[in-house]
Amino acid sequence: MTNQQNVKTLVAKYAEQFLEDHFGEKPGKTTVILQPPFLLIHLQEFLLPAEKIFVERQELDRVLETRDLMISSLKQDMLNGLRAYIDQPLSDLYADWNLKKKSGLLFIPFEKDHLPEELPWPEAVDQETLKEIVILNSIRTQKKPEQTNFYWLSDKILLIERIGILVEIEKKLVQNGVIEELRLAKRPMEQRITSLFNLESLLDGQVQDLFVDWNFHKDVSYMVLLLEKQA
User: InterPro entries annotated for this entry (predicted)?
Assistant: First the structure.
């Protein structure tokens, strides 16, 4: 087992134990993607019995709000625990959930003095059109980002970093502490990118899961697309 494989195994076990300790259950499957400067923890089969009732009644926001508040309150504890396995300064913790698929994603960027080089794009992906669509979707939901960075962590994982996307009214809401309401409102608008645009034809694969989260105080957003490659 290589050192990176060992680190991923340890991180997966830590994340499962952390979630079991604080949420009462561990995911059925945990996959760790370690591609500096990013750490991703993909959770599958993770839905608590009490949450299942609200999901069946289509009251998803009640579950999302509770999870968001839990993650927010536990963020520093989890980051402190992860630092025992990751020999890099970790800057923040982002999280999003697909309750209907019982999946979730925790994504942690490393602190960096400057943005790294973009990782190679898959040959089959239309770079310019995809970039235009992401910017168009940002304009539709907030405004054109001041900076947009694309990171292909593998040919099945695309992470999009957007900096400077909030409009003035949103910045004022953040100053007034209206954080969770903003997150709940923006989440479904962002996730409609797959239905409003012919995204999968550009990505050479079906979108298995899409996750998005923000640090509203820093005016930064991350979107992660997990793909199933076409046969």
Answer: MpsC
